[in-house]
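Exam review. A common question shows you a sequence with its structure tokens and asks you to describe the fold in words. Practice with the pair below. Do the first one on your own.
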Amino acid sequence: IKVILDLDDAIHDPNIYRQSAVFDLLNPLEKKLHLNMSERIRNTLAICDSVTVSTQTLADQIIFRKKPVFVIPNRVSSNMLNALSPSIDETPYQTLGFMSGSETHHRDLNSISESLHTVFQEFPSMKLILAGPVPLPDQLRNFSDRIQYLPFKSWPEHLNYYRKVNLVICPLEAENPFCMAKSGVKYLEAGLSSVPCIATPTSD
């Protein structure tokens, strides 16, 4: 029986996984547990027959281990289509959305905080919606009256947050190997709602 390991993030390498923003939020014991998990995944990779991954960058990180690696990109599913609400909310013009989903994207938002500060200054009517518990960068605190937080929701409900904005921003930390291996799920989700998306140009 052939054994296949499927990976969607670069959690197979402790050195790469340690660079993910999630580690900023962990205490010493939690960091130890996460790195132990990463080691166990790497051991699993060593004894399986082949690997499937969601991005070419992630495949490139694994190929040197001399394992057959197959890229299966994330795609739109019937569940995603069924999760969309039939109506589109009335959205004020110049409303940006950052759909973090979780607090682990704080460094991604910080990476464009200077640009957002400039846009807030140049466009007084611009608003920003933050979906999920991502903390507000210091540079944007002066514009807090134009920033709205939407609460953390389960995935089907979170998908409909895209209907509330005119433009989705999907930044990732450039040069971070963990971020560069991520898939374009947020790009797909924005596309389902016909919302333009500005994203860091990862390979996916």
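Now try the second one, then compare your answer with the model answer below.
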Amino acid sequence: LLGCASARPDEPVAPAAAATGTCVPPGRWVDPGAARTLTTKDILPRLAAARVVLLGEAHDNRAHHDWQLQTLATLVGARSAIVVAFEMLPRRVQPGLDAWVAGELDERAFLEAVDWGRSWSLPADLYLPLFRFARANRLPAVALNVDRDLVARVGDAGWA
């Protein structure tokens, strides 16, 4: 499912429509395989039944993070087992994420425990609503990324 494509719900959507930069209006989803847009009501049963749902965003767009939170809350209401994965956090900070979800850290201590300033370059306030939601609902949370140092080394030296 894509986040950017046709702006009209009845207009066919080509799989490459996201490249145009036109974003889907709020409350709509794009299914590039079916070349059409869907409403949240249309897509919710598919999302709730899926093993994995990826919710992408423009990292610095607060509205995208609000949409992620709304979608996560909807999914929590639609199914019993949810794990929230955070791609911006490297695996090495998993203990801090676990302590946060368990209610053992305040926000300042959490951001220190996950090495926010080094792990991710964007303001934490864009992401804290998602972290707060995971904590309030005691949802298991997983840090998915590798360290930024590794990313930089691969960028400089290549995969080999």
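Model answer, second protein: The two ends are 33 Å apart (CA to CA). Strands lie at 28-31, 36-39, 84-90, 141-145. Full marks require stating both points clearly.
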